[in-house]
Design goal:
Number of helices: 2
Number of domains: 2
Strand content: 25-35%
Strand order of the largest sheet: 1-14-6-17-2
Largest sheet: 5 strands, antiparallel
Order of helices and strands: HEEEEEEEEEEEEEEEEEHEEEEEEE
Radius of gyration: 21 Å
Helix content: under 10%
């Protein structure tokens, strides 16, 4: 009889026992970071978007269309770029982030709260990776304890954020999901004091064995699916940077919001985003040798002759200032 009572108790409270991670933004114990938090020192503004499908099971629908890479630049503001099924965003950081006390960066999406239960929300999730060189990435070990017997549908169905860990999109609009580089402290292949690239990959929420995304333990990640719309998939708003390798003055923060090279990583070319015209461009290899110097360069700049790798790009502007960027050719 005692055994039956124990089993009844476990069955009755099993859903709450599975909901073991931190609660939604605004609730006690939440780790959500508000966009106006003073711990955010800067906002990333160099982002390459690789669109995913509206529906990976029906590629005839094409890829997502909502937003552009510039919607993922700067401070979180509710304007987003939709990644689609399996789509990716890759941020390149002129000033790297580093492992410090607590979270080191936060990713913002545009989810919304269930009006009936503040722990439940409409979540579209994404996996998160970091890299030193833009070529070799490590992925944050995610966990998703959502029920995988019934598909979460793509038309606004709510789910419990307490069953999600280390996946972007856990928290709602205006609140960033934090990520701590300490997760990789045991890995020798990554320099946690020099993270220059952050990749965000949309979770394919389908429970189909061939299409699904899985967490670190091999569980299927049950995410809204299908979302066969131009705005389908993870909606990226912004990337907030918390622990920077080099301190930024106010002027430098403004500069980095207004100047960048893109796409980064790229393939055979890159362009320059700047309010100042470029009068001279120099390209350096990893050994610090100048391998090209171009006066009055025209953009996009053809780099098809360069081998895949990491390059330094020195830009001299018309106002006599200059700036050094890191560019990765894939």
């Amino acid at each position: 009889m005692r055994t039956l009572k124990v089993l009844f108790f476990l069955c009755l409270f099993a859903p709450d026992m599975m909901a073991q991670f931190h609660p939604q933004a605004g609730l006690m114990g939440s780790l959500a970071i508000h966009k106006d938090s003073s711990i955010i020192l800067a906002w990333a503004d160099d982002c390459q978007i690789l669109r995913g499908w509206m529906d990976i099971a029906d590629t005839s629908l094409g890829k997502t269309l909502q937003g552009s890479s510039t919607d993922a630049h700067g401070k979180a503001d509710g304007f987003v770029v939709s990644l689609g099924d399996g789509g990716e965003a890759i941020y390149s950081l002129a000033n790297p982030i580093m492992n410090g006390p607590g979270p080191d960066f936060a990713i913002f999406e545009n989810g919304f709260i269930d009006p009936m239960d503040s722990n439940w929300s409409y979540m579209e999730l994404a996996e998160v990776f970091v890299s030193n060189d833009g070529l070799n990435y490590v992925k944050f070990p995610s966990q998703c304890l959502q029920d995988t017997n019934v598909q979460i549908n793509g038309v606004g169905q709510y789910s419990d954020c307490r069953k999600v860990h280390n996946l972007a999109g856990k928290y709602v609009l205006n609140y960033g999901t934090p990520f701590d580089l300490e997760e990789f402290i045991h890995l020798s292949q990554i320099d946690l004091l020099n993270i220059r690239y952050i990749k965000i990959r949309d979770v394919i929420g389908s429970l189909n064995h061939d299409d699904c995304s899985r967490d670190k333990d091999g569980r299927k990640i049950n995410d809204p699916y299908p979302t066969p719309y131009p705005s389908g998939g993870f909606d990226l708003d912004a990337l907030g940077l918390i622990h920077l390798k080099y301190p930024l003055s106010v002027g430098e923060q403004v500069f980095n919001q207004e100047n960048s090279i893109y796409p980064n990583p790229g393939s055979d070319y890159f362009s320059l985003k700047s309010k100042q015209p470029c009068i001279r461009l120099s390209i350096f290899n990893l050994q610090g040798n100048c391998i090209a110097a171009i006066h009055q360069p025209q953009f996009p700049l053809d780099c098809g002759h360069l081998q895949p790798g990491v390059y330094g790009i020195m830009i001299q502007f018309a106002d006599s200032s200059s700036h050094y960027f890191t560019w990765v050719k894939q």
